[in-house]
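Field reference: sequence -> structure
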Amino acid sequence: MKKMVSAYSKSLFQSVHANSLEARKEKKNFKKFLFSPTVNLGVQDGIVTPGIVYEELLLVKGLFLVTNEQQKIFQNPTFSEKTKVKMIFDLFPGFSPVMQSFLKLLVERNHLSFLPQIFEEFEKIFLKSEKILELKILLANSFPEKFRKRFFHLLKKRTKAKEVLFSIVYDPSILGGILIEYNSMVIDGSFSRELGTLFFE
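Structure field:
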C-alpha cells in the first residue's frame, strides 16, 4: 500500500508541475506576442500549480477527518466510490480539472480511501520542492521573541529553506531547553535529557 500511495503522490505532483511549467511558458510567449500593456495575463491565471492541488487535497483530506458522520461515509465500504466522489464535487464544485481527473481515477480503481495518505506524501514532496521546512518545537515555557527571530534566521540559513512552518507545543515535562522535530528527526536540547544522562551514566 505504501508504494502505491507514494506512486500516486509522485505522479500527481510531477504531472501538475510539468503542466504548470508548460502553461507558464505558453502564457509568457503569448504575452510577448501581444505587446499590449492593457492585457493582464498573470502567471497564475488559469494555471493549475502544485500549490493549488496541495490546497485541494487538504480540503478533501479534511472530509475524512472533520466529523464522525462524514468519516463514516468515506470509510464505509457500502457507499460506492462514485457516491463519495459526487459528494466531494458537490461540496467543492470549483476543483481544478486536474483534481477532478485524479479523484475520478481513484474512484475507478477503488482507491479513494487512500486520499489521507496520498495527501501526506504529496505534502512532503510539495514542501521539499518549495523549500519549505516544517517543524514542531516543544518547550517547557514561552519562546522569547528575540530568541525566536534569531533561531529561525539561523535555521533558514542552515537548511536553505525559503520558509519555515512551525507549531509550538508547551510541555512542562521537558523542564527547560528545546526539543525540535522535523523530517522524522528529533533534536533534543531539553534539560530532561540532560538530567536523564546525568542519572544513567
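Note: The longest strand covers residues 132-139.
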